[in-house]
Structures are given as C-alpha cells and as structure tokens.
Design brief:
- This protein is of the alpha/beta class and 153 residues long.
- It folds into two domains: 41 residues, no CATH class; 95 residues, Rossmann fold (3-Layer(aba) Sandwich).
- The protein has a three-stranded parallel sheet with strand order 3-4-5, with helices on one face.
- The longest helix has 18 residues.
- The radius of gyration is 20 Å and the shape is elongated.
C-alpha cells in the first residue's frame, strides 16, 4: 500500500498483521483510534529515517510540490473559476506570481516547477542559510524572503 487504510480496509487488520504504508495519522484522529483497536503493527513510511533523512517521504514531497503548481495553475484558468492568469505570461503580459511558504523538499520542488513555467516566484523560509542555498540553487531566479507574519501578509 502507499496510502493510509480506508475505513472498509480496517477490519482486514489484526494483531498478527503488519502494515507498512504512508499512514498520515496526525491528520486523522479516527484512523489513529481505529488502527490502535486492530492491534496490528503499523510502520509509517513517512517516519522511516536514515541518517536524519526521510528517504521514503522525499519522493512524495517532490510529487506534492510539483502537483501544487499544476493544480494552482489550473485553478487560475477562467473556465475553472480563476482570474485567467497564465503563470508564464506572454509577451506584453506579466507572468503570474507564485508564493511558496517553506524551502523544504516540497517548496523546492514547487519552485522548480514554477520556474519551469516561467512564473514570478517568491519563496519564504525562516532559515536564512536555507534561503541562501535556494538562491544559489536557482541562480537568483527565485526571490527569497525571510519568513515572518509581516512578510507573509
């Protein structure tokens, strides 16, 4: 499995079974309670750590970052209720603006996708060292801003 168990799958779990998947228990109290009641051994992909790195979560974070830009771009289209913004712009029309909160795996993947679409990208993070790394990574194509409530507003 690569997704948390669905309600109809919970009865299939028992104390003599081991489940190894993405669990996302923080987001779903009922799932947590249901999983505890089964007595099964459950190992969450998102918690497997090797040398302070989450190797099973990293690819999902990359997918999430890239998808966020695709979904956002689609939402900006007029037929989808958006304002008709084209992220990359066209000659004579400025590109759309993308703001990314956080410079972790998801944020960097989102920035890469947005830059690829030629959007005007600003990324905020609380870690100034990380902002420097991101500035170098994208050769100045991403505006980096120290995150604060004021900056976000």
């Amino acid at each position: 499995m690569v997704k948390e168990p669905q309600p109809q799958e919970i009865p299939l779990l028992s104390a003599n079974k081991t489940l190894f998947t993405y669990l996302h228990l923080v987001a779903n109290k009922q799932l947590t309670l249901d999983m505890l009641a089964t007595g099964c051994t459950a190992i969450a992909y998102e918690t497997v750590e090797v040398n302070r790195f989450l190797p099973l979560l990293a690819p999902m974070s990359e997918v999430a970052g890239r998808m966020s830009i695709q979904v956002g771009a689609a939402a900006l289209q007029r037929p989808n209720g958006g304002r008709g913004v084209l992220l990359g712009g066209v000659p004579g029309v400025a590109p759309g603006k993308v703001v990314i909160l956080g410079g972790g795996s998801v944020g960097v993947s989102a920035a890469a996708m947005a830059i690829g679409l030629r959007a005007d990208v600003t990324l905020l993070d609380i870690n100034l060292k990380r902002l420097g790394e991101i500035d170098e990574m994208f050769h100045g194509q991403v505006k980096t801003v120290a995150s604060s409530p004021y900056a976000i507003e």
